[in-house]
Amino acid sequence: MFKKILIANRGEIACRVIATARKLGIKTVAVYSDADAQARHVKLADEAFRLGPPAPRESYLRSEAILAIARQTGAEAIHPGYGFLSENEEFAEACAAAGVVFIGPPASAIAAMGSKSAAKTLMEGAAVPLVPGYHGDNQDAAFLQQEADRMGYPVLIKASAGGGGKGMKIVEHSADFAAQLASAQREARASFGDDKVLIEKYLTKPRHIEIQVFADTQGEAVYLFERDCSVQRRHQKVLEEAPAPGMTDALRAEMGNAAVNAAKAIGYVGAGTVEFIFDTLTGAFYFMEMNTRLQVEHPVTEMITGQDLVEWQLRVASGEPLPLRQHELRIHGHAFEARVYAEDPARDFLPQIGRLAHLSQPTASNHVRVDTGVESGDEISPFYDPMIAKLIVWDESRERALDRLNHALADYEVVGLPTNLAFLSQLASHPAFAACELDTGFIARHHAQLIPPTPAVDSDTLALAALAELAQVEAANLARRQHSSDAASPWWEADGWRLNQDNRHALHFRHGEQEYAVIAHYRDAGYLLEIGADKLEASGQLHGQRLQANLDGRRLQATVVRQAGKLTVVRAGSNTELEPFNPLLVGLQAAESGGGLSAPMPGTVVVVHVQAGEQVEKGTPLMILEAMKMEHTILAPHAGVVQAVFFQKGEQVKEGAALLEIAAE
Ligand code: ADP
Asked: What cofactor is needed (predicted)?
């Protein structure tokens, strides 16, 4: 076994690999960009080396620099994690040439699966079933359109070099094909430097079921069963589980053997995943692609098999045989993984950046595991994946595991930037999810319930916010009184709320567009709070950010985080952001918001569809922005005439920048 390894990655996966290395007594070397100098993976490793500025190209993708660090530190092997250099055949080759073990498959296997098109051709030869489509070399737009027309709509355009849903477009009608092809090619070129695409028949009700495979250098290969990753947004996984609900032993063996055959066909070594798309309408399954690395969702497999897949990777890479044979592998219980992302579900899951002002995670146990690379106070930056953590739960049955998931989600607290936590809770508690009504359209189908319009703030939450405000004012008054030379001065009393027994004080909060008032009347043991028509006897103590309150005899707990002039009340996994304001100043602050359209996030303008003077309908595409390698189309919010276009193709825009102006009719 290795004595020292280098981890060429960051975030939760770097921390995850370090944990197993430590368990096996292997020393670890971390690498980091300037954005990650204080990151958790850097603190956990035995040694850490700077790679460069935050952009991946200048840091985590610098293969030569990484190899130089491996040589300098005497690391015998490099774990690439996922993303970055994990599926880069040149890097795997460079490692071999430098005498450093690449913890992954041989470069030839990465190459074989690197292009979705070439992989399909190879699998066709190995008699693995494929989705009907075109995956050849002819990239002529008219020819591709012809192929799409022939297979019938809807079709899916995919970047051959693709991954992460980039360069993937569904086309519903022949008339839209050309524009979608151009967009897919642009995204593919921006993300992968290669605009080759393939076309597939788009299945309307599929499940994503993938098989975990493992192969060793002795030519043995096994499958560690399946994961169901059907719950997706933007064609990307958000909730995964193992085993797949409804999977029969016969189908499992059939898919498992197909996956092992796929691995054997390319001389595979190490951990790999063969992704299949399963047609719920016909029961057929088709090969989609093989990922030649450890997957984000590998923990659910670990939970149901009781195996440590990173340990398997390290053993196999050091030349040991697979720890277990196929007949020794068993499924025990059920596991879920929920990916906690900094993203805004209400705005098409747009990635968000910002500081984790407050982070409190569920307690780890035999049933609950949190894989994360961040700590309270860390930044989610625009440079990397906006995943905050993976929450993994296990129990004897799916039903009990789902219960665990719901409880753990309710214990998860993140304040400082929008996250998908409330959305995950809605998903995990949705009756259709409990009933295993799974397919990749799940989120779209239940969108209205999963992303409900922001509800009015309830009286309890307003009372908790008011108690936190009042506690802070009282504490400030007390401190001032204690520091005053004239502590007995009645002015300090007068400055507070206690001038007389029925002193009343109005607190005002803004939540989105909505404004709320809480009238607090001072009482001996607390306050009487008037909130609309409600009257609540309220008292509470604030310890740091924890508020223990009593409302009309009910005991309530919440976390209240203050930052940037806002209060966030966190209760049972749901956040309510309230902005205290002074109504007397409102007139001065009123924001101007004419017909301007603003950028939902920082990015680059890639297409401008309209010009000043043009008449547009509601929903007309106006501009396409690219951010984090994804394209976002800005649509006209209403019919009208374009008054001005403030940015041109190629220009950078800041979040909130006005892009265009439309005068309503
Ligand atoms: P990427 O590598 O970019 O993530 P994949 O090829 O793995 O892309 O596909 C991602 C997801 O897109 C799949 O999990 C599935 O939900 C959906 N998808 C892919 N191919 C098809 C298809 N032919 N029909 C319907 N959905 C598909």
From this structure: biotin
What are the residue ranges in the chain where pLDDT is below 70?
A: 483-502, 584-596, 628-630
> Are 160 and 27 in the same domain?
no
Query: Is the Cβ atom of 163 under 6 angstroms away from ligand 1?
Result: yes
| Whole-prediction pTM | 0.84
Q: Is residue 641 part of a domain?
A: yes
List CB contacts of 510: < 8 A, sequence separation 6 or more. Answer: 516, 578, 579, 580, 581
Asked if the structure places residue 370 within a domain, the reply is: yes
> Which domain CATH number covers 163?
3.30.1490.20
Length of the chain as a residue count: 665
Nearest to 531 by CA among 586, 453, 465, 470: 465
Q: What is the pLDDT of residue 573?
A: 80
Interatomic CA distance for residues 113 and 86, integer angstroms: 13
Contacts of 289 (CB under 8 A, 6+ apart): 113, 116, 119, 275
Please tell me the distance from the alpha carbon of residue 431 to that of residue 426, in angstroms, as a whole number.
10
- Residue 411 has a CB neighbour count (10 Å cut-off) of 14
User: What is the C-alpha to C-alpha distance for residues 199 and 188, in angstroms, rounded to an integer?
Assistant: 14
Q: Is 662's C-beta closer than 6 angstroms to any atom of ligand 1?
A: no
SS3 for 491? Answer: helix
C-alpha to C-alpha distance for 69 and 67, rounded to whole angstroms: 5
Here the CATH number for the domain that contains residue 410 is 3.30.470.20
Give the mutation target among 115, 210, 277 for probing the ligand 1 site: most ligand atoms within 8 A of CB. Answer: 277
| Number of domains forming the structure of the chain | 5
Q: Is 156 in the pocket of ligand 1 (CB under 6 A)?
A: yes
**Which residue range forms the structural domain that includes residue 167?**
132-201
User: Is residue 383 situated within a structural domain?
Assistant: yes
Give, using CA atoms, the residue closest to atom 11 of ligand 1. Answer: 235
- Paired tokens of 45: 């490793």
CA-wise closest residue to 634 among 599, 606, 602, 601: 599
Exactly one of 40, 293, 339, 571 is catalytic; which is it? Answer: 293
Number of H helices, E strands in the chain: 19, 39
Residue 624 sits in a domain whose CATH number is 2.40.50.100
Angle at 193 between CA 192 and CA 194, to 5 degrees: 85
**What own/partner pairs with CB < 8 Å and gap ≥ 24 does 116-125 have?**
116/158, 116/159, 116/160, 116/161, 116/162, 116/198, 116/289, 117/160, 117/196, 117/198, 118/160, 119/287, 119/289, 119/290, 120/198, 120/287, 122/265, 122/266, 123/262, 123/265, 123/287, 125/265
Distances, alpha carbon 608 to alpha carbons 7, 184, 624, 626, in Å? 42, 17, 7, 12
Maximum CA extent, the chain = 91
Q: Compute the distance between CA of residue 89 and CA of residue 86 in angstroms, rounded to an integer.
A: 8
CATH code of 85's domain = 3.40.50.20
In a domain, 589, yes or no: no
| Other beta carbons less than 10 A from residue 19's beta carbon | 14
635-652: per-residue pLDDT in tens? Answer: 888 888 998 899 998 888
